[in-house]
């Protein structure tokens, strides 16, 4: 079964794919006929597809985010490959395929990511900090198994949020060793809490954000997470005026650094400054890595990336070249005589 | 007893004033002597003053924000009036003077302002909204009797915050009648809650802000008030996911309108849009009124006002002039012939 | 006859509608045929339509902004309703329909709006101010009967400008009572004059702006109105250097508050500050009201609104919910023991 | 008689100078004594000065902007030269000195500048344009003899405005020849009118702006000049809706290019674009020339210049150096062998 | 043979044109057929075209930027003219047509432009400056014969860069005469060097930029040219620390004036300030001239121009009108009596 | 010998200190007397000092940046401690003190920092990259022993630049292991080259920047370093068009990320993105660490830090508090009953 990024024009193929998008349309003929306008996807990419001559039964059978078995041909439409589907049926339990194999996902298993996050929480020495972090993480434990970190900005895939947290924990661990004045408990807590309300802000299925929630639009994940810390403190009888509640709320509230990026206060503790740059370091380099991964190796330039000042990335070809020997025309000598 | 804004150079006077600022300094002579560098104030203004030859006992007697009885002379120093204090003593209970008479204050009595605010709360029809507003207002009831609304931006005086709320309630009442699609309960709640955590954000005495609190700097009054709504809802068993908690948090979080002005989300309900403009209307016009009030009537221009695009205000003299009769030189006629 | 916002797919209907847009197009067939691409509108909304097989006579009969009688069927095209017109004719006098019934209009009759504006002018106590305001308002009296206040930003409908003025006069009246230091004559004059040159800036028909005039693009309504005040003063022999001409020009020139919003000077009189916020209060809340009105009540979110920081508005559902009783899972208790 | 920029510490001197600033102060001794804190100036620069032991008669004799005869010594105060005045008297007619010799002035005589401007007006071929320009220029003819072009930004000296206009006319003349599609009448008119209301905006004496007028603050020179064009057109019976009035108002209104720089509309005619850049070219290069002129030739860097992105200017020393012969250490050769 | 800007719907024509764009597409029929989607251009403009029934041989014959002979008919498609090509063949040497006649080009011949630039270089008096300028100009001499100055911003046509340099040299010559403190050698050098690396930054054919080069994207023409000056100095044994190398690098690095416009340093020499405004004056007025030239004379407004604050330009009609005689209704008289 | 940060008012002391600043002033008495206005410093901080009755010989003996032996008394002046110097002499070789002990310095020895940097260069696998980095580093090897990384922004002390490079190399090493797609040679090269021209941009003595050089102001360290790469490539006969020269120049040119921060191009390779965030991470956390170190441990807040959004930093006191047990008043319970 061919992965989508290997389908070429004129290929005929059979295989299981995800109905990432599915819309019912009508042809412009007389009388107009129903057809499905489809986006098929698997873990390697996506491709547009058409299924003509849709029946009434088809309309009640197929929906977005289902796994289906397809028989089709790859055609060319406006210079782009497009699948003409000749046969389609829903996947069944007997097919032995799992939807998680068909979505772009973090490179580590969710269960392992969650395990790492839990170990990090357990390693927080300060009891009250650990209790608050645990309370908040428990609220979204299920969603951490699959939520992305953002709609499209970065880590926009299955378990992307958990993966973002885990990589940040690695950076946090390094930076606490390099700069011992940082409090490792606060760094760990800040990393785990900073985006913890994202699953409440977004509505996602299989790592794909379809919309923001009302809470997400009207409160936002930053104020939501700050409220969860209040909740957790009340639940555990920890004073809301204590330095630790103050410090944790500050970490969450300030982690976007500037008001125009959504933070009502700016970083004013050592750990809050560190948290912002740990977050930036991981998010930006993940954008870079993902852009390079999803661009064909033969392409020197990736598409433009909104989170990187809307610039494309160039693959330098350092190794292949021989730049010194006998490249006479570039050698510049002072004039003789 | 002369109010400060009527003291003129060479006046000799006796009276009660507030020690708004008091600093111990040394003269540059040999040996240096201690003296007090003082700012005296009353409800009409302030003036700088010196008290020479400070004794050890004086140092233990006089502190900022005390009421004192002064005998002094107004001299001129660098073209500015300055009081040379010849005698000074602390005011006693027998003097029958009250500190509240010596600070700039809202034009209505705090007790009346608070009464108006409580009536407004009582008039909120929706029970849960009323319960949450009551819970939050109760937290700062004492401070509402005297706190200013800001350090210097607007309503920066005794009970300025309560006065700001009361005037906004008047505007809110009008606007709800003019535009019946607005929910009066939410408008009232928004007005009372929007700055309710200001007394927690600032440290103030007699209406004068001396600093921001740690909570104020690291969390800010907007996220603090949002957290109080969470607290109140938990206390009263109101679901945190309910539309009313969502709506109230949104009102508070969005009332500064833009991220760069401190709001992590922008107004996205009818009442949130209204609240922002009710707040602006009252704050800006109060700046105007206060600037005109504290500028001598003979001055056509006030000082520059930071909150009004850093512009000064001009007093138009519309009534005094006669602009039409016989003002020949301004009459412009088409050329004859 | 069905209003447009009640037409549903597969409806067959007959009725009078406005040809808001009408373009002649050709089909892609061989040979291509002419057809009309149409937008029908009435006071409740608009819908796209097609009229196939256009004759030479049709081309000379139908033009935009005409009232027509239509017989048609509602079909679905790209998931959107679209009318297929089977018969069409121009409305005649005998039909007893008026174009003003088919455009979105202010909720009050133009004649009543104009009457209110004239009463407000008459109530200006200061003779010269009243003369100048009258002179300027007379210039556009006819257009005040139907001009919108803006192309799309706010009050973009029949008599929208007059409606905007009238609602602002209500706010101005309230605020002058609340803050007696404001000069009511200047507030009224500022409200009436601030957008008085808008009809010269825009080209509009039936409340729909089709373009900006050359004067509008090269001078703008702010400098135009300032010039009208000069004209009026010359006409009435009022000194151009008088405080009242200065004050009126300043109100008009500064009412957009900032240079980047089109004001060459910033508000520097009490009334100029008030005018800007009265304008904002009315314009923003009208955007809110119009967005909610034109969004189906079943939709929780309106479309995005450019004038409100490009945000959509959410309809809170406060009344319907029961948020306290027995909502056990949300109740948070301190840990027992 | 020594010019100010040649006075050195320990010089004793006698001469005529301008009292650019004069303030009465008191010493800090007991009893305090009156003294004058003075800024002396002439066409070459300025220097601070003190006159001790001021008499009652002195206070009634000396005022700012007078010419005086001084006998004094140059001392050093805080590393800066400062004049100690031993004798002072007002200049009389018999002294044969003229205040115009003691202020920084444009390098051409005002009468010649005005003559050039009048010739330019006379050369405008289009009668109505010429009439309007004449009308506006006549309003400020007297002030053109001495007004600066700005308070400090550029051309801030005696007759600076007329000089700015004359140099711009030279540039305008060149650019109309280089690009014949530009209308020379409009270019000349735009140059003469663009800052024509500056003398109404500012209050200046001897080329030194002491303040902005009320008209200047509340209307600004841009809207003022636009109003003068309206006046002129009415006076001469030229239609306010004509293209030429539109074109002239647009030139004036748009010449600051952007809203945040004070222009309510942006340049939208060929001549308006040209006018903005002619203005910039002349204003910026004059700032450069003046900064270099008033900085001692031995200084490689001028002070920072606000109008040039707040940067200082460097004097390159191109001619003096010998940069090639035998400068072995800088010669970079490819590695041998 | 008709120029493109004179082709009208229903014209049948034969002629030579440039294949500015050519894309192979498929019809939506069954089976789909190949056709060419084409943009034809000549020196007067461009038009879209279709060539149906493309053969295999056609696909190997026709490519973008070729000259072809066309027989076609002008049809109307979506209200726009579109050519239906009936016959097409490549132009041959015997046809006597030259591609340079078919592209928009500077109004002077490249060979003359280059000659003028070389004369300017020769006239640089300072030997080392002349050597460096010569070295850099030689690097792109061939490309100066045809490269545009920008992709679309300004001078975006055949030899546009050379034309931009030549016109700037004219302005530079004038301004050096008007302000003798400017060093003419540096002005000439700055003008020639400021955009000298543009041909390395962009990939262009026949004056049409198709893309930016890797060097252009990753280094940019400003840092590239600064590096060329380093190269030239090394080549000629001129000290890299000399004032002249410093001055030349500064001219190039600062000529965009602000960091956000691409200059890592701001102008800080007299000549650098002058260079920026000479560049602006020429670029902006060329945008104006080109926009007016390519807009039909009957159109009062040009399209919007990105480089001119995204504004369109208006053609004033000053000459045609008679604005004074008997235009009674506009004459404003003071009230009589 | 007491370190400066332990001097208290009324201390009498003898010791060696650095004359960080020294200015000759005159007293205001008659006749005025010369005195030295001094700032003394050592590695722990600085303090102001006065030395009265300066002799002619003193003026020729003492200069800034000298080590001196002082006998003095700490007095109080305007509430600040100030040293009155009674005896002063220059330190001699026999005193056995080294200036490097008296300046704030990086926590590692310069010789060790340089050794680490050299090892990093040696570890670059790609020969040409290593050659270019070596060439550039050799240019400033001496200065790397003591130059700061900036005037005041961050690492503003002795060998601060080398320390900045070494800590960044640690981060770079970590991040290359965490994200193997990054090229370690380019990361190392980018880290060493990014600020390599800073010593040419600034004039510093003992880690204290006194000014920027002409090169620094007119070219800037970013374009300077880019030019050095050109030089190095020419020197080693490496093609200027090669991918590696392109990649290295791009790293240097883009490392400030945005045009307004001084980068003429934005990061567009994976390593350039990484370099910017490695730089930010180190610079910002060093600002944090230095601010906390130089603020007395008893102070909860540091001064404001310009590089951290102009915010102060707060020291959270997490460990000391007991926040849960019996803090009854903060425990919030749902209402009973």
UniProtKB/TrEMBL annotation, chains A, B, C, D, E, F:
<dbReference type="Pfam" id="PF01966">
    <property type="entry name" value="HD"/>
</dbReference>
<dbReference type="InterPro" id="IPR050798">
    <property type="entry name" value="YhaM_exoribonuc/phosphodiest"/>
</dbReference>
<dbReference type="InterPro" id="IPR006674">
    <property type="entry name" value="HD_domain"/>
</dbReference>
<keyword id="KW-0378">Hydrolase</keyword>
<dbReference type="InterPro" id="IPR012340">
    <property type="entry name" value="NA-bd_OB-fold"/>
</dbReference>
<protein>
    <submittedName>
        <fullName>HD domain-containing protein</fullName>
    </submittedName>
</protein>
<dbReference type="InterPro" id="IPR003607">
    <property type="entry name" value="HD/PDEase_dom"/>
</dbReference>
<feature type="domain" description="HD/PDEase">
    <location>
        <begin position="157"/>
        <end position="293"/>
    </location>
</feature>
């Amino acid at each position: 079964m061919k992965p989508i990024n290997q389908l070429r024009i004129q290929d005929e193929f059979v295989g299981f794919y995800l109905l990432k998008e599915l819309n019912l349309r009508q042809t412009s003929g007389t009388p107009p006929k129903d057809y499905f306008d489809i986006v098929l996807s698997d873990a390697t990419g996506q491709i547009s597809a058409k299924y003509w001559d849709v029946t009434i039964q088809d309309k009640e059978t197929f929906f977005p985010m289902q796994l289906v078995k397809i028989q089709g041909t790859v055609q060319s439409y406006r210079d782009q490959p497009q699948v003409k589907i000749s046969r389609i049926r829903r996947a069944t339990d007997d097919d032995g395929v799992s939807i998680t194999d068909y979505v772009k996902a973090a490179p580590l298993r969710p269960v392992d990511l969650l395990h790492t996050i839990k170990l990090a929480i357990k390693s927080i020495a300060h009891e009250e900090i650990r209790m608050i972090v645990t309370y908040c993480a428990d609220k979204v434990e299920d969603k951490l198994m699959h939520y992305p970190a953002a709609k499209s900005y970065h880590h926009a895939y299955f378990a992307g949020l958990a993966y973002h947290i885990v990589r940040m924990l690695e950076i946090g661990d390094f930076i606490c060793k390099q700069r011992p004045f940082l409090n490792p408990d606060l760094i760990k807590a800040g990393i785990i809490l900073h985006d913890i309300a994202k699953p409440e802000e977004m509505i996602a299925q299989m790592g794909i954000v379809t919309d923001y929630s009302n809470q997400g639009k009207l409160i936002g994940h930053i104020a939501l997470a700050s409220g969860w810390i209040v909740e957790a403190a009340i639940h555990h009888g920890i004073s809301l005026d204590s330095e630790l509640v103050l410090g944790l709320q500050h970490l969450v509230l300030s982690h976007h650094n500037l008001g125009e990026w959504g933070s009502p206060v700016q970083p004013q503790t050592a750990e809050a400054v560190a948290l912002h740059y740990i977050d930036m370091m991981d998010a930006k380099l993940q954008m870079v890595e993902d852009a390079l991964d999803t661009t064909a190796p033969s392409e020197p330039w990736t598409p433009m990336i909104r989170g990187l000042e809307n610039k494309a990335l160039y693959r330098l070809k350092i190794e292949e070249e021989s730049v010194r020997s006998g490249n006479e025309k570039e050698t510049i000598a002072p004039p003789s005589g």
